[in-house]
Structures are given as structure tokens and as C-alpha cells.
Amino acid sequence: MITKEEYQQAISVRDQAEVTINAYGKQRIEEFGARWAKFLIGGDPFPDTDLRYSASARCHCGAGLAYPRNCGGLHQWDCSAVLKGEATEGAHEKYPFMFYEIKSEEQPSAHGATTRP
Ligand SMILES: [Zn+2]
């Protein structure tokens, strides 16, 4: 039998966990925002190791689509050549996550397929 004290203790643990989880999420969003600004404003490209590639979707320029591993759920697939600083933005493709479902190289159903160079 669960006592009222045990129940109250569990509620307290849950509430504290939510505070920690929310603070961690906020911290990650801020960290990625700073990194994205370094890319957009500072021209600091992403190395391949920081990118997750699509299994098969490519930009019309031939480079695989990719996104930075630590971005949030409101980000987008971009041309990997742009993310790596090998091409300038403009005519390259981008697909916001909220509008497009593109299979990543790390999904089990990709069966090892990747556009990673
Ligand atoms: Zn491209």
C-alpha cells in the first residue's frame, strides 16, 4: 500500500525533475541558437561529424540534405554543402521539419543508406 507521504514524495520528485528537464531544454536551445548564429553571421561551418545526413534525399546540386545534430525540432533539412561552407545559401534547398518528413541515415528503416560523402 502506498502511503500519502510516499505519494507526496513522488510528486515532489516529479516536480523537481520537470524543473531540471525544462532548464536543460532551454539550455540546449540557447546553445544551438548561439552555434547557429556563428554559422549564419560568423560563417563558421559545421563539420561532417556534427551533421546528420538524409538517407537518400539530396539538394538539386547533388549534395545530401542534412541538419546539425543538436538542433531542435523546429529546424530544417538544409543542403549539406551550405552547412559545410562549401556553397553559399541561395539556390540550395531547405525543408522545414514541420512540413517535410525526410528519412535520416540513422533511422533503422534506412538500412544503412546515407547521402554522407
Ligand atoms: Zn545544394
Index terms:
117 residues; 2 domains; 2 helices; 17% strand; binds zinc ion
Radius of gyration: 19 Å
Structural class: alpha+beta
The helix/strand series, from N terminus to C terminus, equals HEEEHE
The rough form would be described as elongated
Unreliable runs:
none
The tally of strands reads: 4
Task: Supply the number of structural domains.
Answer: 2
User: How many helices does DSSP assign?
Assistant: 2
Q: What percent of residues adopt helix (DSSP H or I)?
A: 25-40%
Which strand order spans the largest sheet, edge to edge or round the barrel? 1-2-3-4
- Ligand catalogue: zinc ion
Residue-averaged pLDDT: 95
Largest sheet report: 4 strands, antiparallel
Q: How large a portion of the residues is in β-strands, by DSSP E?
A: 15-25%
Between the first and last Cα atoms, what is the distance in angstroms?
58 Å
Fold blueprint:
Blueprint: H1 4-40, E1 51-58, E2 64-68, E3 76-79, H2 80-83, E4 94-96
Antiparallel strand pairs: 1-2, 2-3, 3-4
The site of zinc ion has 7 residues, from loops.
